[in-house]
Amino acid sequence: MNILSLGAGVQSTTLLLMAGHGEFETKPDYAIFADTGWEPQATYEHLEWLERESTKLGIPVIRTAKGNIHDDLISGSRNQSRTANMPFYVEHDGEKAIIPRGCTGEYKIEAVNKKVRELLGYQKRQRIPPKSVTKWMGISSDEIYRAKTTGVNAWEVLRYPLIEKGMSRLDCMNWLARNGYNVPPKSACIGCPFHSDRTWLEMKRNDPEAFKEAVEFERVIHQHGLRGMKGKLYLHKSCRPLDQVNLNEDQMDMFDDGFLNECDGMCGV
C-alpha cells in the first residue's frame, strides 16, 4: 500500500496533485491528514477543496485525529494531568530553554499510523509484515535535513518523491502556478511555538481572532504550567507574553521562514 502523509501545506499539496496528474510511476492509494483540531480556518478551507480535487484525480483524502491539541493542553494544564507537549519556551531561575516536544509524535505520526493499521485490516498490537507500506512524505530538496532514512515502524518504508525530482519549495509553488492551482497556506497549529515573528505578525494582522485565541491559550498555560514542569511557559522564544512581544511590525524579516526545528515532515508542509 502507498500512503501519502498529507500536511496540506505547499509541499504535500503539490506532491498529491502531481501524483494525481500522473507525474510518478504510481499513485498513493490514500492521502491521510492528521487533524490536531487547531489549524487555521484557511487550512481547513484549503483541505476541503483538496479533498474534492484529489477525489477527482483518483486519490482519496482521509482525515484522522487523536484529539484536539488546544483543548487537551488546556485541560492538562488546569488539571495537571499528562499531555503531549508542544515545544514551549520555558524560563526558570533566569535561564531560557525549549522543552521536548511530544505533539508531532502523538497528534500527527501516531494518528496517521493508527489509520494505516486500520486500512490494512490489522488490530492494535497485531504484527504487520515488514515493508508493507510505502509512506510518501512531502519534504522538498531544500529541507532534505528533515528526511529520515527509516520509518518509526518496520512495516513502513519512507519515500521522498519531491527530493527524488530535486524539487524545492519554490519549485512546488511554480508547479502549482503552471497548473492553475493556488498556493496553499502553511499548515500548522494556531499556537505552535515554532512560528516565526513573520507568521505571528501575519496572524495578528490578518486573523486577529486566531491571534487572540493563541494569546488566551498561552495565558492559561503560563498560569497553570504543565505537570512536572518547572518555570513559566511561553509561545515566543523571547519568553515574553505573546501580546507583549515586539514583532517588528514596521519591518518583517522576509528571511525568517520559521519551522526550522520542525521534524518528520508532518507539520507545515
How would you describe this protein?
This protein is an alpha/beta fold. It has a single domain, classed as Rossmann fold (3-Layer(aba) Sandwich). Helix content is 36%, strand content 13%. The protein is built from 8 helices and 8 strands, in the order βαβαβαββαββααααβ. The strands form 2 sheets. A 5-stranded parallel beta sheet has the order 3-2-1-6-7, with helices on both faces. Strands 5-4-8 form a 3-stranded antiparallel beta sheet. Helix 1 (10-20) packs across helix 6 (169-178), helix 3 runs parallel beside helix 8 and helix 7 (197-206) crosses helix 8. The longest helix has 18 residues, at 103-120. The chain is globular. The two termini are 22 Å apart.
The string of secondary-structure elements, in order, is EHEHEHEEHEEHHHHE
Percent of residues in β-strands: 5-15%
CATH-level-2 architecture: 3-Layer(aba) Sandwich
Number of domains: 1
Instruction: State the major sheet.
Output: 5 strands, parallel
Helix content: 25-40%
What is the global morphology? globular
